[in-house]
Amino acid sequence: MGGPEIDHLIALLAKLPGMGPRSARRAALKMLQQPEARMLPLASALAEAARAVKVCADCGNLDSRDPCSVCIDQHRDRSVLCVVEGVGDLWALERAMVHHGLYHVLGGTLSALSGVGPEDLNVQTLLARIAEGEVREVILALGATVDGATTAHWLTDLLRPTGVAITRVGQGVPIGGALDVLDDGTLAAALRSRRSA
Amino acid sequence: MGGPEIDHLIALLAKLPGMGPRSARRAALKMLQQPEARMLPLASALAEAARAVKVCADCGNLDSRDPCSVCIDQHRDRSVLCVVEGVGDLWALERAMVHHGLYHVLGGTLSALSGVGPEDLNVQTLLARIAEGEVREVILALGATVDGATTAHWLTDLLRPTGVAITRVGQGVPIGGALDVLDDGTLAAALRSRRSA
């Protein structure tokens, strides 16, 4: 309906995370009603981002500069590296403004199921960064999943010989969370990581 | 984070219906990881749709041709016009394949609150189409809202002198709907429009 251009646009919009055919139709319709104000700006923002954004050769972040704006920020503590699975995790930590060191994006976790092995992860550059001698602590900020835990163990073994301190993010009750809605695994982790009050 | 191009893209994506800041970030990230496969195709689909799509001068539909593909379809019953509020309603009826006549898109409903008056609606072309003499029935397929009902009453009065049959879509229990979750207005409408079994 409306010709091949509209159908094609709806099909592409529907593939975006969080969108489906229904919201894609609504989005396409809303934009079609104001093509100059809504569609062309988004079209050029997409083209511009695709042109400008690169992968940071140091840490794996996505940024319009390489090295990325985190890596070149001289106010950051260059002795602490926070290892994350993906760029989304890096963004989340930056929004929370809780990490003042640098990052290292692994680009995934080890996964037997998905066939992701050590050679698929961005670890050679991690070892190279540590070898430069400035890093004192590596924080493993991986998800509390089976693959995340496997990857954390493997990285711990791999990085041990370098002599840097290796830490893992704490697990337990999320802030604002009630205990009675948490799963057993989280409750167990929360009890294990108890501290004196 | 990630530079102005990413921030700008996320801000525009977040304005799409069904999207928010969180899903916009996820969508931007997913596309940034495959710019050639994901971003550039969407950028060109948007630009292409903005270029190609026009408003049908006859019925108000959005299509890459004018008159639109519904209006030029010679298999359709040109004696029945279905009046809808917006192009989204026309698309919904076409997907349901329940109307085999033509359409007329009003472009809104009368609304004292939003300041929409008769002069803001696409009615002059509706009267002109009826004056051509081919139309025998006008189906008012407007929403079951206060503004929809007001507009239907006003259109009924306006079209009465033309002598065409004027009908309104039925109201009642949605197919697949249980009675106990329906609001009072729908239940009242369903009882009012009861038929012998």
Could you explain how this protein is built, in words?
2 copies of one chain form a homodimer. The first copy, chain A, has 197 residues and is of the alpha/beta class. Chain A folds into 2 domains: 4-52, RecR Domain 1 (Helicase, Ruva Protein, domain 3), CATH 1.10.8.420; 74-196, Dna Topoisomerase Vi A Subunit, Chain: A, domain 2, CATH 3.40.1360.10. In chain A, 42% of the residues lie in helices and 13% in strands. Chain A is built from 7 helices and 6 strands. In chain A, the strands form 2 sheets. A 4-stranded parallel β-sheet of chain A has the order 4-3-5-6. In chain A, strands 1-2 form a two-stranded antiparallel sheet. Chain A is globular, with a radius of gyration of 21 Å. At the A-B interface, α1, α2, α3, β2 and α4 of A face α1, α2, α3, β2 and α4 of B.
